[in-house]
Design brief:
Four copies of one chain form a homotetramer.
Chain A (H helix, E strand, L loop, with lengths): L4 H11 L8 E2 L4 H4 L7 E6 L4 E5 L5 E2 L4 H13 L20 H5 L10 H14 L3 H13 L8 H9 L2 H12 L7 H12 L2 E2 L1 H12 L3 E2 L4 E2 L3 H14 L5 H7 L4 E3 L4 E6 L3 E6 L2 E2 L6 H14 L5
Antiparallel strand pairs in A: 1-11, 2-3, 2-10, 4-5, 6-7, 8-9, 9-10
Helix pairs in contact in A: 1-13, 3-5, 5-6, 5-8, 5-9, 6-9, 6-10, 7-9
């Protein structure tokens, strides 16, 4: 029998209150730094098509690294398993944008969810399709069914102006021959993909194919085959939370992908997609309140992959 | 409806044949090096108490690092969550017995399944209980219900004679204050725990509590509480396969723990424990044929956590 | 009594013959790769103003990293000891263009002779003087007294087209706030400085101030104060030979700076500057025949700083 | 003309006063921790046989890592250049007792002056001569001409009780096959060698062969051949000061070896050996006042290798 998701969400909204103020809003660019921290939204979408939301579930926020999940779907569609010749599938074990590993492993990033790996993924989309930036945004809008998911141009510009570390990653990988695009073009696409705005409800809808064997009930299409849906879930579980994958699996027990905008999307295959948003981050760059909310969610429902 | 596990095992036994000879039996100690490589056994134990086996499922082999799963259960019972002050819960991202990470992180190993972490876990059992080595072996026998699971003294001695790297790990952690026991005593317990012999059938039985909310039908006891059973599954998934956790999750999709003796134990919570043994290892130190067999198992049954 | 330098040079020219073919001409850019390997020149200039040369001592070659010594003189003149807040004075202990150390030490390169450090040095000249590229080339021409030392535009362009790793270094340091210039401009100055052509005779003349307490007899000016001349010699000895400083000090025993064009300049304070050129490099990127020639030189003359 | 060394020492004794209290006495073992910090001695011995001393130049202190210079002389005598197959000659570029480099370079330490390298050197003496510990102490007494240079048994025992990191190094190198001796025996010799007591006057006498082409006027013997004396000076300059070789060369400009007992020995080939002792250490583990005193010494006399 299905839990009473709405009641669970209401309890969570109460119980996360003491955690506000314990994290810190991302401050490396002004446009993110001024987002008020005490916001919280959560949305569940079940495979039966039911939706449950609480709080600021319809407020748009900056998708940031959660976008890496969707550009990866596109790149897998373009390259198939050959993609794994250019990016690994192992957790990084070090800081999420470290250059050390890249240098030791000849420019092959450990996985597609660290910055270096996501840049390779975006390079695949950029170098092999016309209008790459448009294609990523179009794909996300197709998954959410919401034409309002647009690039926040101020955020995109600000990312670019502070993006020297990502430029270092791209140049280093290019020196190893693992980047095909022209670097300024590639970084432009990358920064714009991270600057798309989205809401919790949108995110839950967009991730539903991962809970439903690859099928999107939003647009009635098979987005991924069943096997790739499973595999993306496995990748999220082992690599989706920066340096905190182990702790997140231990506490929450769901495949998930987070972003420094404060959003997290998680999935229970065969059951639901659940998204949460709260801007204050923990030391690993994951939403502190959001992680707590997801931990409460799996504890209260008794539902996790483990 | 339950798959026809026996038929699945029979198909697997056929399909893994071409993979013999592609890996290499562990050769760092003579007692392991002389194990014939072309052996294969597999055992499934469901939560309904059914058992299905194929091949050499009752042949004893060296448990090696799979023992770390059981010593961890004991250490968690002794210290509770305080254990996590002395060992992390994150994948290592580097070679499974690396000293680098230990030095950078003040003697706190990344997780309890790399050698350094397992030595800390054994230190907890050694320093806080009388007759530690006996206690670990007794615990394993209690879980398997098989009094024949004994320490292979030749293997234990051989491990000790080639154990300078583990001695380096123990000394380094002791220099940081993270080892309480006398080092020769500790290493003796550690090497003996790794030298226990066990069969696939035994392993599947011993791991059943992880599939059954902590309850062991073998001895009728609640070995772990439900929450800790889930958590151990999460730890296995993110840290149980040395440097190959990501690939294993991607290909197999089950929480698992491997050992260089060629054994692997995996679990689908709520459904079954499945073990496999085949001595030839891949480049990451995991059974090559065993990993293939588990991949076939989840593909054929359509059952995985993802 | 002064050794018979000319006789020594003649002996060296004979004895280095068997070493041709043991190294490899730098091949990361076409313009360097096509330089014939079997060339050898050597020049000594004593503090008394005598000059002794052998072989191809007047042939122009690509100055490459030897230029770092001269840009450092300029940067020290501009910033004084404050330069050491932006770059260290310790040997790197790792590959000469590694990013690892930069990341661990917050964008402060270990010394001014590794690529990252030389980029910071060039940034000082670029950001704090008008016409930086011209200023570096002018300074070198002033030291050699030879107006023919010009930028090889083909080499400069080729460096730029293959300079992704240096671009990675510059971007990484900029992300830490240790680069002031616009990166494309900076890299342009840097690549052009490395592409200046020079001969052994020119190099020996240009380095004479380091043997003569900072005074240049070529142009009659005090280029550095006596203390800075000593300090630059100390820096060359501990940091001037990429990863081979220890072996070079052990075998040769002179402060020196090398470049992948095959040139090396060395100094015995109070006595002479000695330069050598031969394009084939050893595994550390230093001229193989050139290093051998300098080893023979200090052995035969019995003169070294030790 | 020779400087007035006595006058220089007197000026230095005045000028180093403000530097007391800025460093910290080594505190990793009690026997060193209780040494009063405000002590200072200095001794010069010229190649003409003159000796000049100031302050506590005849007070015995713990030789610690300065002993590595003397055990290296012995090991070179035993193995000749084959020693360099087991230990490198390059500066370490990282913390002086790091395990990282050892792991990356297959158990070959970077140089004989970091702990790992000194343990290999002591292993050579231990495994290839009877009564190794006695042999090292005898050799030092032979060089100083002072039979009072004895092992401080309290210090040796204390080193052993806190020597887990050195035990880790020895075990790691043994796992790579680079240690021949039994580890407890080896560490006992190593800790006892570091616990020898010596004075500044003794040290200056013991190092005189390095200033005098290998000849010891104390005992009238050629201790090293001329070439090896030069080479040891080169090794000291590039590797003798832990992580501070570059800064030391820049500030002082003499080949030197330091110890955490607060002693430093330095040499100007052809001129003198100079030793200093003051127990308070800087962040790199070198005597803070001692380093300042040597800097003043080379500045005031105008004598350095550069």
């Amino acid at each position: 029998m299905q839990p009473d998701y709405q009641a669970v969400l209401q309890e969570i909204e109460q119980e996360i209150q003491p955690y506000f103020g314990m994290g810190r809003v991302a401050d490396y660019i002004p446009a993110l730094a001024r987002v008020p921290g005490r916001q919280f939204g959560m949305a569940v979408r079940t495979v039966d098509g039911d939706e449950f939301t609480i709080g600021d579930a319809d407020s748009p926020f900056s998708i940031q690294s959660v976008s890496k999940l969707f550009s990866l779907m596109l790149a897998l569609d373009i390259m198939g398993d050959d993609l794994w010749l250019r990016v690994g599938r192992e957790p990084s074990g070090t800081a999420f944008n470290s250059l050390v590993q890249l240098e030791h492993e000849a420019g092959i990033p450990r996985n597609p969810f660290i910055n270096a790996g996501a840049i390779v993924v975006t390079d695949v989309v950029t170098s092999r399709s016309a209008g790459a930036q448009r294609r990523i945004a179009d794909f996300i809008r197709m998954l959410t069914g919401n034409q309002d998911n647009r690039v926040d141009e101020e955020v995109a510009l600000s990312e670019k102006e502070h993006g020297y570390r990502n430029a270092a990653l791209a140049n280093l990988m290019k020196s190893f021959g693992n980047i095909e695009s022209d670097i300024p073009t590639l970084l432009d696409v990358y920064f714009r993909q991270c600057a798309i705005t989205i809401s919790c409800r949108d995110l839950a809808r967009a991730a539903t194919p991962l809970a439903q064997g690859g099928y999107s009930p939003i647009n009635g299409q098979q987005i991924l085959d069943r096997r790739d849906a499973k595999r993306l879930n496995a990748l999220m579980l082992t690599c989706g939370l920066y340096d905190a994958v182990g702790n997140f699996a231990y506490r929450v027990g769901l495949p998930a992908k987070s972003g420094v905008g404060g959003g997290i999307i998680a999935v229970l295959p065969g059951q639901f997609a659940v998204s949460v948003w709260s801007p204050e981050l923990d030391a690993n760059g994951n939403s502190l309140v959001g992680t707590k909310a997801l931990e409460l969610f799996t504890t209260k429902t008794g539902l996790s992959i483990f």
